Amino acid sequence: MSPSKEAVKLAYEALEDKKGQNIEVIDIQGISVIADYFMISSGDSVNQVQAMADNVQEELGKAGFECSSVEGYQTANWILLDYGDVIIHIFHKDYRDFYDLKRIWRAGKFLTKEDLM
């Protein structure tokens, strides 16, 4: 398994652990040079969104993955975690549909949890 796919798998589990909703993984390797994978998830509250981001950073950090940038943590409407080849978007549920990243990256390949195993 490639390092980026391993990071996605760990992040997926970390998001699930904090009850992340509608976790989606988009393989964008063939359509963009900015990353290999985009992940999108959402939570019900600012506290949950922040807890999800914290858990992802903790679990990926334990595995040796370094987050190069965190954006939006204080307001937690949309937290972006940049792991280079893996970009993780964690939305407050009220903002996810507004930004509709799934539509923007629809040319990518959507992966299921089973695809990551």
Number of helices: 5
By CATH, the architecture is named 2-Layer Sandwich
Shape summary: globular
Oligomer description: single chain
**Count of structural domains:** 1
Question: Key terms for this structure?
Answer:
single chain; about 120 residues; alpha+beta; Beta Polymerase, domain 2; globular
Report on this model:
- It is a single chain.
- The protein has 117 residues and is an alpha+beta fold.
- The protein has one domain (3-101): Beta Polymerase, domain 2 (2-Layer Sandwich), CATH 3.30.460.10.
- The chain contains 5 helices and 6 strands, in the order H-E-E-H-E-E-E-H-H-E-H.
- The protein has helices spanning 3-17, 46-62, 93-99, 101-104, 113-116; strands at 21-27, 37-43, 69-71, 78-82, 86-92, 109-111.
- Helix 1 packs antiparallel against helix 2 (46-62).
Topology record:
Blueprint: H1 3-17, E1 21-27, E2 37-43, H2 46-62, E3 69-71, E4 78-82, E5 86-92, H3 93-99, H4 101-104, E6 109-111, H5 113-116
Parallel strand pairs: 2-5
Antiparallel strand pairs: 1-2, 1-6, 3-4, 4-5
Helix pairs in contact: 1-2
Briefly summarize what is shown.
The protein has 117 residues and is α+β, with helices and mostly antiparallel strands. 40% of the residues lie in helices and 27% in strands. The protein has one domain (3-101): Beta Polymerase, domain 2 (2-Layer Sandwich).
